[in-house]
Amino acid sequence: MKTLCGIILAVALAALSAHGAFDIRDYGAKGDGETKDTAAIQRAIDAASAAGGGEVLLPKGIYLCGSVFLKNGVDFHIAEGAVLKGSPDKEDYNALDVAPQNWGRLGSGDNISGGHLILCVEQENVTLRGPGKVDGNVGAFLKMPDGSHPPTKLRIPWRPAQMIWFVESRNVTIRDIEIADAPYWSCFIYGCEDVVVERANIHTVRNPHTYNGDGLDIDSSRRVRVTDCNISTADDAITLRAAGQGHLKNDGPCADITVSNCTFSSDCNAIRLGVGNGVIRDCSFTGIRIENTRYAVNAVGAWSCPEHGVDISNISFRDMQIDAKGFCKFYYKHATDSVFDGIAFRQVRGRVREPSIFDDTPKRPFRNLVFEDVKLEGETSPRVAGKRDAERQPREAAASGRTLKQARQIRRVWHGQEWDNRVRMGDSKNDLLSVDSWAMDAGKGKEGVK
Q: Which domains does the chain have, with CATH numbers?
């Protein structure tokens, strides 16, 4: 009898919601900040999706919650004054094998469990919106048994992975929302298509430091538009990645990403390109303000271990205001074959405290780097200054704070049939710069620096 009554009630609630919202309080949510509201929220989501879609409303209150799964057609509306707060208990989060696209490993690497607060896996026509807040409850996870902050990320006892996890989904909208205090990455767009992120305020705790506290990570996704967002983070504010191989069912390039009218601030990188063995291409950043940041733009071929690395091409930056330690840091690092080609900066203003770093190789120089109308107080990199000689230098003197004039002080030293592969830069510290195979024209002894 109780089961029958429950079915009748659910049907009645669905009928009532046909012309209105699926209010989670009607499904048993308390919103008192103490009761676990996970099951009630999931019931409302399931009912809305089963009805063909609709608004799932979280009215004012604090809803303590574990993993919830967004479904087709759901408009997940966190109203003003409402907070969806991550449960402090690991038992409330999904298992690692929740989906084949998931990953995580405790005790090594980033030391994450693979649990998420909000999941949307292989769904369509889904909206996550505010103006309320998603709160990752970082303080519940980044602490030692004695309450102190973990000295390294490997000492964290347990933590979830990406707080908001959209995976291989289509027609996704995230807007007018605050995304706060994630214990790891805040919002991950992974293998998705046709995504809009607008007017989002994303921030992670910077003091004490949130290890890997990223803002918005976009990986192997197509046609993503990010606009009018404010992102302030302990780690990268926004990243473009191509690391879907081996995880996504339908891997593809990270392509057709447009980012406009956003403000980024980070203790690491405001904008990061790289990671993976795929392709990042055809992306643009326009009207970007960067403040209180280490590096404005970082591009890396492979971060963790030797592998092919990511290929990056046709990336445009225009109309940027920058206040950072450094402007650009481009390096292949562990990548064995990745190529950077066609990265352009135009109309850039601001100030930096150190020169940009461009660390390519003779066999794989960065191709078609463009710097037009770039005026940055404190920038001394000859590449940014547009000097043609600098483009012929696979390892630029500015990477060590040297000037182009100093780089030209290279002395050729003949040892029988070989050139000495170390040259003195002539500075007070007697630093040496490796110039292995600097455009030596098939052994004819011609240096690549005139």
A: 2-411 (2.160.20.10)
